[in-house]
Amino acid sequence: MLISGSPGRIWKLKLGSSSVERASAVITHVRAFSRQAEFARTRLNLNEPIRDVFKILGHQIKVHQIEIELDLAAELPPVLADHNRLEQVFVNLVSNAIDAIDEKCAGPEPCTAGDRRITIRSRAEGGRVTVEVVDTGNGMSEHVKSKLFEPFFTTKKVGKGTGLGTSISYGIVKEYGGTIDIQSAPGRGTTFRLSFPAAP
Questions:
Q1: What is the predicted pLDDT for the residue at 157?
Q2: Which of 33, 89, 36 is nearest to 56 (CA)?
Q3: Number of domains forming the structure of the chain
Q4: Which domain range does residue 110 map to?
Q5: Cα distances (angstroms) measured from residue 192 to each of 41, 42, 179
Q6: Among 53, 76, 165, 182, which residue's CB has the most CB atoms within a 10 Å radius?
Q7: Which CATH number goes with the domain that contains 104?
Q8: How do 2-4 and 10-12 pair as beta strands?
Q9: Residue 129 and residue 78: Cα distance in Å, rounded?
Q10: Structure confidence by residue, pLDDT tens digits, 148-187
Q11: Is the whole model's pTM more than 0.85, yes or no?
Q12: How far apart are CA 38 and CA 53, in angstroms?
């Protein structure tokens, strides 16, 4: 898996010095991630749950040969939210992006390396903290976009999705005073733009 950061710099994500250490780290993180919690609010840097996504999805990203580009602002004002809840949101968005890229690349047109990319950006603007998750996948129609956050709505094959991931993510974001905007068109990829109020 390649993760690129600042211009001209690309590095591999390493989770430990051995397979056993990597597996142990992943298991520990998944246990913490899956722990049920109330909608707690602490002062949180959004870059932290974004980076932790790759502790869960690192292997999947590598298997699917997805290039990850991180463009995370060095200094972000904190937001009032829960780390694990927002990590759940970003895991869902990245998982869906992987599926969208796979669907596009399964079509008649061959995919090149640049066609399999997910970009995540964070920045502060106007008293809010914004994150964009951008993929090069197959995109969505206006009909799909209008239904996307409805419970049990899914475009995935039977047995592959519950249709709850995006609706749950939407509820989490709204609970913390955030918004989600979607820009997408068939064959042209998708951008999810999440915006949260900065903590006072």
A1: 55
A2: 33
A3: 1
A4: 2-33+43-197
A5: 23, 24, 10
A6: 53
A7: 3.30.565.10
A8: antiparallel
A9: 8
A10: 778 755 665 544 544 457 889 999 999 999 999 999 999 8
A11: no
A12: 20
For residue 65, what are its two tokens?
Answer: 């040969």
CA 39 to CA 43: how far, in whole Å?
A: 13
CB-based burial label for 178 (10 Å; 0-12, 13-18, 19+): buried
Sequence-ordered strand ranges (E) for 17-173:
42-44, 67-72, 79-81, 117-125, 128-135
Q: Are 194 and 179 in contact (CB under 8 A)?
A: yes
Q: What are the DSSP calls for 164-184, one per residue? A: -HHHHHHHHHHHTT-EEEEEE
Residue 106 phi/psi, 5° resolution? -85, -5
Which stretch of DSSP H or E encloses residue 144?
Answer: helix 142-147
Tell me the two tokens of residue 156: 């995935």
